[in-house]
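Tutorial sheet, problem 5. The two components below are modelled jointly, 794 residues in total.
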Amino acid sequence: MTHVQESTKTSVPESTGTGVRGSTLLRHLAVGVVAVVVVLLLSTVLDPYRNLQLTNVAYLVCAAAGLSVLTGLSGQISLGQGALMAVGAYVTALLLQDGGWPLPLVLIIAVVVTALVGVLVGAAAARLRGPYLAGATLAFAIGLPALADYRGLASTLGGQNGLVVLSPAPPEWLAEVSFDRWQLGISTIAAAITLVLLGNLVHSRFGRCWRAVRDDEVAAQLAGLPVARLQIVAFVVSAACAGLGGALLAFVNGLAAPGAFPLTLSLQLLAAVVLGGLGTLPGAVYGSFLLVFLPTWSASLATRLDLSRDIYANLPLAVYGAVLVLVMLAFPSGVQGGISRLIRRIR
Amino acid sequence: MMTRAGRRRRWMAVLAVAAVLTAAGCGGSDGDSGGSGGGSAGDSTGVTATSVKIGAHYPLTGPAAPGYSKIGPAAKAFYDYVNDNGGVNGRKIDFVYKDDAYNPANTVQVTRQLVLQDKIFAMVGGLGTPTHTKVVDFLNQSKVPDLFVASGCLCWDEPDKHPYTFGWQSDYYREGKILGKYVADTFAGKKIAYFFQNDDFGQDGVRGLDQFIPKDQVVSRQNYQPGNTDIGPQLTAIAQAKADVVVSFSIPAYSALLKLGTLKLGISPQLVISNVGSDPVTLSGLLEAFAKQGGSSVKGSQLIEGNISDAYLPAYLGPDAATNSWVALFKKVHDKYLPDTVFDGNTEYGMAQAYTFVQVLQKAGKDLTRESLLKALEGGGLTGPTLTPFGYSADSHGGVTGVQVVKIVKGVPVPQGEAATTDAATAPITPYTGTLATAPANGIPTS
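Model answer (structure tokens):
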């Protein structure tokens, strides 16, 4: 059965060794540190616009990784990741408005608040399955950003115009670092932390329980797993990741507005995660890359070919759709699935 | 089951793919960078010996697209006309404009693209109050001249906070004062209602109105959010307050919705619509389009009859238009470069702004840097198609200093009195009696 093969492919081998090889946490930490260093070195040679695009990738990775775990591992389809990002972004905007709060503290508070919202959403979602869950999260995605416009809250939350975020400047000991490299550094470190922590969670008891619930809920219940609690925990974890992604979005773009969190953001995150490889963390990375760079490439292609304005406006979307279809046909398990298969064939 | 070695290989593969994608992304960039054109110690990003690249953001789609989407192509048409006549100091103007759909989140993205990727020399005519306020800090931090913002917010006239930003059109506060005085004088004792966009645009206008319209005459203040087209509750409130006059600071789509809403409710207050939302051609077209969507058909020109508004550019409709040198110039450019579109107030606006920019470019001289551009603009002394003078100086980055109240009679805006100027504080309104400039013979400003 392919399904069983999928599960065993990502399950944990026995940790018999010691040191880096043996401990999952240390192994993931090492890879994370290496990745951060590589990106920071890259940022010195790339121009500011590339750095900005990589920063976009970084905060999308945070949100996409959470969604990948939620939908792929825990089996709960969520179309509301964008709305949870909005929560994180608005918390960040409100805290940074007063100034004086250190950035790490602001990010942590944004994550905690979004996680609390995730508890509420998860509790409601734990009763729903499949398309009903998708519909409920869809309503959440459309309704929550519109809350900023609500009569009572419009003055604090800035209404449709949104809140301007005063991004804190780099500290004095980093004074010669340009603003875009500073933002890239913060976002990459945050994404690396998210991936490392999620990687450990995925390989832990939680990951195994989630997979069990996803594959056969009744069997999991019979085996004694608290299904509802596990599903809520999955939602909370995914919401925390989305909160971090949204907080970084507000920090990087300097704006928290309903227009920045349309329904298409949630749908694009889901598409990116499926494209990259549902349930895998590298898949979230690939998907975020495609989400940011594919429109840019197709836009510059359209400019170079000097196409008419109508085609130019729609080409990125058409190319994105074409890539989605092709990847799904060639690699049903996404880019990560394709890469795994290639590696296995090489070995 | 994957072994530890296989797992490590997988992570290496992840990093490798990431690096490859980034490298490929570097290769896929647009390629041409600005280079420096002048040899002096100024910032000449976006300038070469033969070209100067400028950019802007416009709502080409979305709730503000009706009308405003024509401004970008109109400005580009005027720059093409200037380029075909030799350019400015041997340089052709390369105007790149991008769509932000009146969504501030998009404005942030396209502005960063324009500054970091396209490496524009200056932003000329970025449109919208809620949109541009989100990028003005970035543009000033990046030291990019931010000229002639297509909005009348007072926030562009802050030389200490935003030294690179300049307005162009008459600001909404001044406009509110002049309209307010007219309404207070003409409709003394009548009930007035306000209908305004809920951001700096509408709020600045209302503050101006309040300087002259007595508080007890204002029976209702209703605002709307762009993007939410259901203004039923606001209209009901205005109808219930039995307002005789509705003063509106709205974009064209919402002016049209306001008019159609009053028809639906069976009330007919006198409409006073501020300049940006009242262009006769745009508004009558929108009225007909919206009514058709709703299943009825109306004659747009009948519905705008009697509207009061204000103008700071010469009328392009009616008998005066035939004799005005500026209108003749702009219509000539329009007929050559935009033959398939209709000439309206937005076309005139885009070309008038482009004319002013070409003037400043001329004044900045052959040695073109961002600093020389700002110095040329702050030097003042620019004359153009506007009905009242510009107010540019080192301390003032606002644009046109006043407007003229007009009334639509038989589809043509008819001036109601003299053009008047005022300031952005509490100064009174003084009629402007200076002579108006005429357009140069071939349309290219002389330095």
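Marking note: The longest helix of chain B spans residues 4-27. Full credit if you identified this.
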